Structure formats: structure tokens, C-alpha cells
């Protein structure tokens, strides 16, 4: 069964409840997954990791940079301790770094 996730959905997983967060900017309809019980964010392509650090959005791969940064601000509203990015992998960085990225650093 296929399920279209557009954001705002919450569903149960083996890792606990998961919230689907709309994170457009990298692409229209892009979503990320937030696991509040683990303070874990799976940002997919909304963020990148470079040299072991949460590096933010990739300007050359993001057609709508302003919207992408707004999406990072939405993610920063959650209690995140760890982030998994599709480009760069896992990093122990979360809310504080997301706020820095959303603020333009």
C-alpha cells in the first residue's frame, strides 16, 4: 500500500511515534521525519553534513533557498539532539545548530 506523506501526519514505528514535517525548498513536497521520543530528525535532503558537522542546506542543489531556510526554522522548533541527512549521514547536532542555520549562519 502506498501512502502519500505531505506533512502533519503522525504514525507509529518501531522507534516510536514519528511526525512528518513538510520541508520544501530542496524540492516541492519534500518532507522530513521527526522522532520526538528519541529527539531524532531524519532531514532527508533538507540539510547536509560536511566534515562531520551539520552544514545546512546545499545552495547549489536547492532551487528555493528562502523556502529551504524557512523549513529549517520549522525543524528548529522541535527538540532535536541528533540529525540524519541523506548527504553526509548522522551527526550529533540538533536544535541549537538548526537555529543557527535558519538564522543565516
UniProtKB/TrEMBL annotation:
Chain spans, region Disordered: 1-25
Transmembrane spans: none
| Gene3D superfamilies linked to this entry | Ribonuclease Z/Hydroxyacylglutathione hydrolase-like
- The Metallo-beta-lactamase domain sits at 3-86
Identification of the protein by name: MBL fold metallo-hydrolase
